[in-house]
Please model this.
Amino acid sequence: MKPRSVRTRDPHHPEPPSRPAAVVVTTTFPARPGDGTPEFVLTLARAIPGYEVTVIAPRMPGAAGEAVHDGVRVRRVAYFPRRWEGLATDAIMPTLRAAPWRVVEAPFLVGALLLAAVREVRRRRASVLNAHWIVPGGLIGLVVRALTRVPVVVTVHGADAYTMRGRAGRWLKAQVLRRAAAVLPVSRDIARTLGLGDVPVLRMGVDTAAIRAAVGERAPREGLLVYIGRLADKKGVDVLVDAVARCEGVRLEVLGDGPERAALEERAAAAGVADRVRFLGRVPKSEVLAALARAQVVVIPSRVGADGDMEGTPVVLCEAMAAGVPVIASRVGGLAECIHDGVDGILVEPDDADGLAAAIDKAVSGGIDLDALGRAAAEEARRSLDIGAVGASYARIFDEVGGS
Model:
């Protein structure tokens, strides 16, 4: 007898699933768990109780065409000749800014994800489709809804809310949001920006207990700052480099990569702190956890980018707080909503190197009780940022819109 997993792949004879099925469409998804690619969509997908979840994602180097991760089915979609395919190997908007010619891949990416989503919704007899980002995910969901009548839940992360502000972009976003069965922003600021009214704000949380266990007993190194994330304009790492140059005796580890890396390395050299700022590049999850164990402070110096983009609720904030690491962050977006200044973290004004330097100096010199700050951060993370509660909320909303 053939195993059930093989039989359910036959699109002409689909079997009713033992649980209701949900299909997720995303453009950001790791090739393998822990490879360093943001994996908040996977974290959420495996935390939704009572649903068989299938993720549709673009092909990436090193990723299997089909795989199962912790019970979540993943189907990869080829969208361009492999030799040139690259639009979805990183965040799409920064990729387009760095290589505008890749816009030629965009219609093929949308079309490939659309066809795969329609097939998967029908094959799994899905009761709901969850689209991450308004564009292209929500746009794909809108067409899938028209073809299959499956209700669409759109998750809004930040860039999709804060960019595309021209007339055409605003119109397109409005069409998607108007037709969605539910819209779930990851911050209250996103909800305000989009005029969503009284909708649930569900942050991309983390498994707080697993993070704490993986990090283990922390051994902070005096004067060690850690930054984790992409090296892009809205992240404000140039402000952090300038702040380090104003602080004696501190060192900075930068974990992540992106279009600003070369300029940031040059900036550190010009400021005379190249020996105190280490650029470690994109690293696997295990090294991120190790950095959380040794950091005295995690710094998140985000700001409003030149294109208007800013943070939703960055996962690194959730991870750092869950691990009990003191955080210094900018007072923008979801950061300002999650941190209670002076209680479970420190907030500073964005784009203010002097203010950031003063906060860093105070933290590393003993002017702040970092142990108390870390304990409060871990408690707040358990209360409001745990993925278990987020996943349960998604399941309830899926039940409501899907009629389960």
